């Protein structure tokens, strides 16, 4: 198999791209030189090279900020069947998903009879959603494909096969909004499309449930922190610095409740589509400003209530192990963001904090350095996830639909 490298095209590649398209594509379907030049300037063209020769390209055009249309995917004939076209399309899709602002819709229109193009798109996570009467062939039709950008579920019992030759049946099957082409198969020795019915979710209802769950969770954490803070104020032996930590935790949890309420208001207005960004603020604030300070303060509270250093250290060790497990689990907020060495170091100190704090209290050592270090660690993690990381990660798989079990 020949080795190739893939990169963004530049203006100097345009003559070679035009030559490749002239040798591999129908001239009627290839983008014009003006469109190709504009797409290259927008960095919407990826090219593949082998031994210094241009052997493949994938290009798209952007007619509006919210829509990108795939123009062409071309590979030199002797290199076809090696996965190069799929790689080019995947890398172009990633470039488009990384564009600033909301991710635009990526679509493509191909002749229904173009089996190779349909198969390529379906392998890349596209689904065929509409029949288009734009074919250049007499009585022919085209299929409109779009890349799924969010997870949707399909009914496993509502799938059927339609031979490619039965175009009237294909048109009728794609008329309902919830049905789409999800696979290309061989049926009786001829190509056929698998038509699947998608379950229709109500995003507003799902988001409303998420916001309500966030409010309920933060409210419960606030009640627990308030109880612990009340105990701290009634005990004359409770360290002042830990009291301040709990006061800060109370304030941050209240702030997360305000943020969740703001998310509910955003959902009611549905104007700026910033629900996900607002929920990220609420999730991060409630975890690193509310939950973790509360849990880490429990050994200190127990030490003051029991006066038993041994059981205090056992409890602290169990809490440290529990936090370490949680940080590595799929339930952790930190797992939704990209990791770096700084994240790992801060996570390790967070997990060890109950043990360190219990040791400080048990040995009657000054606890201010531990409290300041813990507060700085949680503040640093909050800052990283709010301002230095992107949105909370969703499903990273290329195919953004799955069968509901």
Concise structural overview:
With 405 residues, this protein is α+β, with helices and mostly antiparallel strands. It is built from 11 helices and 11 strands.
- What is the string of helix and strand elements? EHHEEEHEHEEEHEEHHHHHHE
Strand order of the largest sheet: 1-2-3-4-5-7-6
- The low-confidence parts are 395-399
Number of strands: 11
Give helix % range: 40-55%
Structural class call reads: alpha+beta
Shape: elongated
What is the terminal-to-terminal distance? 39 Å
Rounded radius of gyration (Å): 28 Å
Mean pLDDT: 86
Summed up, the helix count is 11
Strand residue percentage: 15-25%
Biggest sheet, open or closed, and with what strands and sense? 7 strands, mixed
Name the descriptors.
405 residues; single chain; four-stranded mixed beta sheet; 11 strands; alpha+beta
Layout of SSEs?
Elements: E1 5-8, H1 14-24, H2 33-41, E2 45-50, E3 53-64, E4 67-75, H3 84-97, E5 105-111, H4 115-123, E6 126-132, E7 142-147, E8 152-163, H5 167-173, E9 179-187, E10 190-198, H6 203-234, H7 240-269, H8 275-306, H9 309-328, H10 341-362, H11 368-388, E11 401-403
Parallel strand pairs: 4-5, 8-11
Antiparallel strand pairs: 1-2, 2-3, 3-4, 5-7, 6-7, 8-10, 9-10
């Amino acid at each position: 198999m020949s080795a190739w490298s893939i990169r963004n095209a530049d203006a100097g590649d345009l003559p070679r791209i035009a030559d490749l398209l002239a040798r591999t594509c129908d001239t009627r379907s290839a983008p014009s030189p003006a469109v190709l030049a504009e797409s290259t300037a927008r960095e919407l063209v990826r090219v593949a090279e082998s031994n210094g020769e241009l052997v493949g390209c994938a290009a798209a055009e952007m007619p509006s900020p919210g829509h990108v249309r795939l123009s062409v995917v071309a590979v030199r004939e002797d290199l076809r069947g090696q996965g190069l076209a799929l790689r080019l399309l995947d890398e172009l899709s990633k470039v488009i998903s990384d564009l600033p602002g909301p991710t635009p819709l990526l679509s493509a229109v191909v002749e229904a009879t173009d089996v190779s193009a349909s198969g390529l798109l379906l392998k890349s996570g596209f689904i065929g959603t509409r029949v288009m009467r734009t074919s250049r062939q007499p009585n022919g039709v085209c299929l409109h494909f779009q890349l799924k950008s969010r997870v949707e579920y399909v009914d496993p019992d509502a799938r059927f096969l339609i031979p490619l030759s039965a175009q009237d049946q294909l048109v009728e099957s794609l008329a309902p909004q919830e049905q789409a082409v999800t696979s290309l198969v061989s049926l009786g020795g001829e190509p056929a499309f698998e038509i699947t019915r998608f379950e229709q979710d109500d995003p507003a209802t799902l988001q409303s449930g998420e916001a309500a769950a966030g409010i309920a969770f933060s409210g419960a954490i606030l009640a627990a922190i308030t109880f612990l803070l009340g105990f701290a104020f009634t005990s004359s032996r409770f360290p002042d610095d830990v009291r301040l930590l709990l006061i800060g935790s109370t304030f941050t949890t209240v702030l997360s409740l305000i943020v969740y309420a703001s998310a509910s208001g955003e959902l009611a207005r549905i104007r700026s589509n910033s629900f996900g960004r607002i929920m990220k603020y609420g999730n991060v604030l409630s975890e690193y400003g509310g939950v973790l300070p509360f849990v880490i303060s429990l050994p200190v509270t127990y030490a003051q209530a029991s006066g038993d250093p041994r059981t205090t250290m056992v409890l602290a060790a169990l809490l440290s192990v529990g936090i370490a497990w949680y940080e590595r689990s799929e339930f952790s907020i930190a797992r939704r963001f990209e990791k770096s060495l700084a994240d790992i170091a801060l996570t390790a100190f967070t997990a060890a904090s109950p043990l360190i704090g219990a040791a400080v209290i048990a040995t009657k050592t000054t606890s201010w350095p531990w409290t300041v270090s813990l507060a700085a660690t949680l503040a640093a993690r909050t800052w990283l996830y709010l301002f230095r990381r992107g949105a909370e990660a969703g499903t990273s798989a290329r195919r953004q639909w799955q069968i509901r079990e």
